[in-house]
Amino acid sequence: MDPLNINYPRTTDQITLAGNTLIRQVYAWMGGGLLVTAFMAMVTVSSPAILNAVFGNRLVFYSLILGELGLVIAISGAINRLSAATASLLFLLYASLNGVTMSFIFVAYTAESVSSTFVITAATFGSMSAFGYLTKRDLTGWGSFLFMGLIGVVIASLVNIFTHSSAVSWIISAVGVLVFTGLTAYDTQKIKAMAASGAEGRKPAILGALTLYLDFINLFLMLLRLLGNRR
């Protein structure tokens, strides 16, 4: 029995149709998540009271960060036990909280650099996602290297919180760009394989959307650190 309670089509044509539908749903939900994040970031940055409440109190800020982490774990790890409606709600809640905590970029960086970096991120993400979808090459072997790179970025970032080294920060960002660029292609191919298997429904679409959303957001933040002009 399928853990997601998904009905798999029996014919090749039905499998192809379901796969194409799932791919469209993944990108639609991802795009919706990005819009929610952008909206919440703009709402937060336009309200001094909200900005002060979030960034003027470390307890509130770190509580939001932990809440976001918990939501990612809940969606990724408990997707089988969640209803489609609950999974959708948690994804939108995560995108909203992420918008609140990411609003600092509009304070730290000029609007022009945020906009230009977003365009660069979108172009890079789109190119690598298209590569991951269209390439005949099996990208499975990338997984272990990208995972090790991701762990290295996380550990180095935590250490740099205390050392405040600008050189280390630049290296972390450069490596992060490479890691999340690769993950975009790798994750897209995984989603394509999931769609080709006949998976359908909102829950696998949400899970795929969350994966690509995280790739996009992290790629954007890494590029912003490298290319952004601070105020």
Describe this structure in words.
The chain is globular, with a radius of gyration of 18 Å. The chain is built from 9 helices and no strands. It has helices at 12-45, 48-55, 58-77, 84-102, 104-108, 111-134, 142-163, 166-196, 202-227. It has one domain. The longest helix is centred in the N-terminal third of the chain and has 34 residues, at 12-45. The chain has 231 residues and is mainly alpha-helical.
Layout of SSEs?
Layout: H1 12-45, H2 48-55, H3 58-77, H4 84-102, H5 104-108, H6 111-134, H7 142-163, H8 166-196, H9 202-227
Helix pairs in contact: 1-4, 1-8, 1-9, 3-4, 4-9, 6-8, 6-9, 7-8, 8-9
Structural class: mainly alpha
Largest sheet: none
- Hey, roughly how much beta strand do the residues contain? under 5%
Rg, Å, rounded: 18 Å
Q: Which range best describes the helical content: under 10%, 10-25%, 25-40%, 40-55%, 55-70% or over 70%?
A: over 70%
Distance between the termini: 56 Å
Short description:
The chain has 231 residues and is an all-alpha fold. The protein has helices at 12-45, 48-55, 58-77, 84-102, 104-108, 111-134, 142-163, 166-196, 202-227.
Features:
231 residues
